TrEMBL record:
This is DNA repair protein RecO. GO terms for cellular component: bacterial nucleoid. Keywords: DNA damage, DNA recombination, DNA repair. Residues 5-75 form the DNA replication/recombination mediator RecO N-terminal domain. Belongs to the RecO family. Involved in DNA repair and RecF pathway recombination. Pfam families: RecO_C, RecO_N. It comes from the Bacteria. GO terms for biological process: DNA recombination; double-strand break repair. InterPro entries: ARFGAP/RecO (IPR037278), DNA_rep/recomb_RecO_N (IPR022572), NA-bd_OB-fold (IPR012340), RecO (IPR003717), RecO_C (IPR042242). PANTHER family: DNA REPAIR PROTEIN RECO (PTHR33991:SF1).
Length: 231
């Protein structure tokens, strides 16, 4: 469809008495903010479709930071997220909003986002989907880390050795104890392949992505993490 592209609503907020401001993650233009005129009216034809986790075909026009929504059509039902999966979906949306520059295309990351939402809807444990998306997000941002070689010697990692993470360098073989920054070679291999076989590997991946994403997120706490704490 000419001029249309796939997208998801990340967040909505009221604008005037009858309209909405939409934060969108789109396939070919990345994160955009759209004005949906009249979308708050009870008889609006698109009101029901403009919800997070609903796959959409969207068309908009205008210039500048704020564009105007021309058309929106749901291409399927909203993904059935509830409980931890729903909170995890909000977390993904907040990451995209906080980290990605507007009007910058991330087509590969968009597909990773769709994959993550699908996995959240399908599996009871959200952790693998979250870690894989965080790693994809870091890759899209150009945060390059070699998980498979020691940054000090260049040698391939050994699954049975321990490595310390050093920002802007990578992982260095070390016998020093640093629980927060220490990873086994097996942990690093799991990060490289995005295939986590144990709970310990998932925990290690979470420690790494928290450290790596921190400079992009800044000091302001994530609202979605507060939802988990209130459970």
């Amino acid at each position: 469809m000419d001029g249309f592209q796939r997208g998801f609503v990340l967040h909505t907020r009221p604008y005037s008495e009858s309209s909405l401001l939409l934060d969108i993650f789109s396939e070919h233009e990345g994160r955009v903010t759209l004005l949906a005129k009249g979308a708050r009216r009870p008889r609006s034809a698109i009101r029901g479709a403009l919800q997070p986790f609903t796959p959409l075909l969207l068309k908009w026009g205008g210039r500048g930071e704020l564009r105007t929504l021309r058309s929106a059509e749901a291409t399927g039902l909203a993904l059935p997220l509830s409980g931890n999966a729903l909170y995890s979906g909000f977390y993904l949306n907040e990451l995209v909003m906080r980290v990605l520059e507007p009007h910058t295309p991330y087509p590969a990351l968009f597909h990773d986002y769709v994959t993550a939402l699908t996995q959240l809807a399908r599996y009871s444990n959200p952790e693998p989907a979250l870690r894989c998306f965080e790693l994809a997000l870091l890759e899209a941002l150009g945060y390059g880390v070699d998980f498979l070689h020691c940054a000090g010697s260049g040698d391939p990692i050994n699954d049975n050795m321990t490595y310390l993470y050093r920002e802007q360098q990578g992982f260095v073989a070390s016998i020093m104890k640093s629980q927060h920054r220490q990873f086994t070679g097996a942990d690093l291999r799991a990060l490289a392949t995005r295939h986590f076989e144990t709970v310990e590997q998932l925990r290690a991946a979470k420690r790494f992505t928290r450290m790596a994403l921190k400079p992009y997120l800044g000091p302001k706490p994530l609202k979605s993490r507060e939802l988990f704490r209130r459970k």
